[in-house]
Amino acid sequence: MNVLLGHIDFAPLMYGLVMFLGLMVMWWKLTHGRWLGLMIDIGVFALVFKLHGGTMQGGFAAMVAALLAGLVFPMMLRR
Would you state the pLDDT for residue 5? Predict the structure, then answer.
C-alpha cells in the first residue's frame, strides 16, 4: 500500500505557476510602460505557441520562451 500518494502529478501546478509568473511580468511591463519588453513577450509567446500546435506542452514552452526573451532581448537592445 502506497501511503505517500505517488500518483499525484505536479505538472499542472508547475504550468499554473509559470502562467501566473508570465501574466504578472506582462502586467508589470504594461503598467510601467515597458512597451518593447511587452511586445517581445507577446510576439515570442504567439510564435512559439503556434509552432507547437497549441498543445499544453507548447503553451508551457511558449511561456518559458517569452519570459526569457522578455528579460534578455530588451537588455541586448539597450546596448
Answer: 60
Q: Record the pTM.
A: 0.77
- C-alpha to C-alpha distances, 71 to 41, 55, 63, 77, nearest whole angstrom: 9, 24, 12, 11
- 3-state secondary structure (DSSP) of residue 23: helix
Please give the full DSSP string across 38-57, using - where no structure is assigned: HHHHHHHHHHHHHHTTT-HH
Please answer whether residues 41 and 67 qualify as being in contact, where contact means their C-beta atoms are separated by less than 8 angstroms.
yes
How many angstroms separate the CA atoms of 63 and 20, rounded? 10
Query: How many whole angstroms separate alpha carbon 33 and alpha carbon 19?
Result: 21
Instruction: Give the domain ranges of the chain.
Output: 34-79
The per-residue pLDDT for range 23-48, each reduced to its tens digit, is: 999 999 999 999 988 999 999 999 99
